[in-house]
Design a protein that fits this description.
Layout lengths: L4 H6 L11 H13 L2 H4 L3 H4 L6 E9 L8 E10 L5 H16 L6 E10 L8 E7 L3 H12 L15 E2 L3 E6 L6
Antiparallel strand pairs: 1-3, 2-4, 2-5, 2-6, 3-4
């Protein structure tokens, strides 16, 4: 919905696939690559051109409430670690989610770190914090809390903060859920 201009000039949307491990990724992607073309049906490349793929490791900071609807809002912020570790960033995201939970909103929170591919930045130097409201209403409640002065950073060590860029707001759709 609201992202930086470099994204809107180059992309229309993002498809994210989640795997529980690199072994599961290799098995799933390998099966797709080895399937006869006719067995694959329509694949994304049949309908669009894709940017450079990359793998991101995601660390769950807060499981949050179940997502009952097929779409919700996701707020993301890219942050430089400034000497902090990825574990510190996960702790920060967990604290922020806990602070929102104290206000009646229990968001899913995760920290993403580039694993392979994509633009070149120093390893473990930059993360993306993601907060997902279980519903659009919960996500907008989080944003309204911040707009009205809620201190979501309460309890964080302000001596060594992350340096975060302007947040992005995404409309997030569930397109497949494995039972």
């Amino acid at each position: 919905l609201y992202v930086g201009p470099a994204f809107t000039v180059n992309y229309d949307f993002v498809i994210a696939a989640f795997y529980p491990s690199y072994a599961a990724l290799a098995q799933s992607r390998g099966a797709l690559r080895n399937a006869p073309t006719s067995a694959q049906g329509i694949i994304p490349q049949d309908m669009m051109s894709c940017g450079t793929p990359f793998l991101r490791n995601s660390y769950i900071a807060n499981q949050g409430d179940e997502l009952p609807d097929d779409q919700t809002l996701l707020v993301s912020r890219r942050c430089d670690l400034n000497g902090n570790s990825v574990a510190d960033a996960v702790d920060i995201a967990s604290t922020v989610a806990s602070n929102f939970s104290s206000e009646g909103v229990n968001p899913q929170a995760a920290v993403g770190v580039r694993g392979f591919g994509g633009s070149q930045v120093p390893s473990n130097d930059r993360v993306t914090l993601r907060f997902v409201g279980s519903t659009v209403s919960d996500a907008t409640k989080m944003m309204d809390l911040v707009l009205n002065g809620f201190n979501y950073a309460q309890g964080l060590d302000t001596e060594a903060p992350l340096a975060c860029y302007r947040p992005n707001l995404w409309l997030s759709h569930k397109i497949f859920v494995r039972n």
